[in-house]
Amino acid sequence: MGFGDLKSGSGLKVLNDFLSDRSYIEGYVPSQADVVVFDAISSPPSADLCHALRWYNHIKSYQSLKNSLPGVKKPLGQYGPAGVADTTSSSAPAASKDDDDDDIDLFGSDDEEDAEAARLKEERLAEYAAKKLQINCVVEDDKVGTDILEEQITAFEDYVQSMDVAAFNKI
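Structure for Elongation factor 1-beta, as requested:
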């Protein structure tokens, strides 16, 4: 987690990307997180880093209020996107070696739920994909009764949900 070195172009690029869909470092109002990151930047970002420059100018307007902004100041490396190496302190690699709880999934796997959801979706789609079949037939009443014919058709329970008799032609 962190922005990297905010005095370098790569760190400012990470900050710019982070601020592309945010107004502040944390939350929806200026906070101590913004003050910490602002203080780590030595000069205003260049114009091609438009999101970082917008944020920089906005936080600069709070200079007189920076001690009264909400929040608690944390080390610079605790702010920013995950997956960026923290180059601001030397104690960060030691802390990451002690932190081995990443190997345990405390909340379970979502794979089982996804498989169950996929199965339910397929079943529901199969219900909506049902087709209506109409058959015209002529029944010789002496050989086959209409109720026997209905029973034989509905015996295919996997394929036939219901059966309605529109008309029978009897001979």
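The helical segments are 9-18, 32-40, 50-60, 92-98, 111-128, 146-154.
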